[in-house]
Amino acid sequence: MQIREILTLKSDTIHSIAPTDSVESAVAKLVSLGVGSLVVLKNGEMVGLLTERDVVQGMVKQGCDLKDAQVSTIMVTEPVVADADDSVDYARDVMTKSHIGHLPILDGGKLFAIISFHDVARACLKEANFENSLLKRYIKHWPE
């Protein structure tokens, strides 16, 4: 299964913020949207990724008062990315090895979507359930 296939199961909205926006406004946006990450865009191009984890790590590095800090001070500037034609297994492996919960997806070198580990897990379970049903059907009709 390709990443492109799991994108049909979710919204195609990419939530974003500017690198010059305040961390306070980023946190408010994360909370109001109920999401765990925001793509950081400058002139329509992805320049980073901001996750809940980045906010917490920023609090440790810069102190708990981050409200006036700019997003650019705590965002990941070179996030791990995948291509829409990569496999879901690749996404699962890279997210697990990199300890990340959100993965920007590129298509033709341009930002296409962002997926969460939850999206990947749901796709893997769906595929495993399908394979399981095929195996059960095969065993049930096993020639004797």
Automatic annotation (TrEMBL):
InterPro entries referenced in this protein's UniProt entry, alphabetically: CBS_dom (IPR000644), CBS_dom_sf (IPR046342), Diverse_CBS-Domain (IPR051257)
The protein's superkingdom reads Bacteria
Listed A to Z, the keywords are: CBS domain
Q: Please tell me whether the keyword Coiled coil is annotated for this protein.
A: no
Query: SUPFAM superfamilies from the entry?
Result: CBS-domain pair
Q: Which PROSITE patterns match?
A: CBS
Q: In what residue span(s) does the CBS domain sit?
A: 9-66, 75-131
State a single Pfam family of this protein: CBS
Task: Tell me which PANTHER family the record gives.
Answer: CBS DOMAIN-CONTAINING PROTEIN, CBS DOMAIN-CONTAINING PROTEIN CBSX3, MITOCHONDRIAL
What this protein is called in its record is CBS domain-containing protein
Q: Which organism is it from?
A: Thiobacillus denitrificans
